[in-house]
Amino acid sequence: MAEHYFALIELQTFSPISISAPLTYLSSPAYPLPPPTTLMGALAYPTLRDSLNELEQGCSTAEKLLEHVTYAVAGAGGYIISRSIERMYNTIYQKPNRWIIDKTHGPHPLRWSILVAGYAQYLNNSLYVLYISKDKKILHNVYGISRVGKKEGVVSIERVLIDEVNKYIVRDPPSVIETIFYTPSYIAECQFARLYSMPMLHKNNFCRGLRPQLQDFYVPLELGRMVCRVLGDAIVLNIEDLSIIIPEGAVR
């Protein structure tokens, strides 16, 4: 097995985080925890900042990280889902002849509208994120993460631990694992959790015009840890008293 490294970070959130499912209305319910693709975008910002706004063959620059990052997952000690009213500017969706404001009659009535967006607020404003990669240098870019999800989802780095995955593998894991991190349904069966279909780390999820690739994850309920029975093809990590169940393929 090739050497793999991980970066476990604790993020401080300054406001609720809003992340909608792909190809849905902005007013759709938000995910309680940022899916792997959102975490990849958060890492792409400091890693590929110089070319962040460029699209190559219709794909986001974050797609380049798929060659280096084999797994990404998030967890929180608890969360609350809420909704808030936002103003949405429609000018970018209007015909060019509607872009200029008519000074005689005032702003065009279709220039903006409102929507109700979903948000997640985390216990103690703490969000935990784990990245796994063969490239240790890539993982050092986590120090530059400053936002998650929307541009308004500003975060700061509280703690970072970067080390070899092999040192933290639980060799003889118990039959039941308690975890705050969401877990793929094909490697564990979990209680005190809900199933969410979230975008996985797949090229289709970073390119225009391609069908989103979703995967079912168990996500802990609002408060407390979920209890999981580990199935085959899984590895249990114990890092700073946090148990994380990951696919075996993430460290092959």
Automatic annotation (TrEMBL):
Organism superkingdom: Archaea
Protein's UniProt name: Type I-A CRISPR-associated protein Cas5
Organism: Ignisphaera aggregans
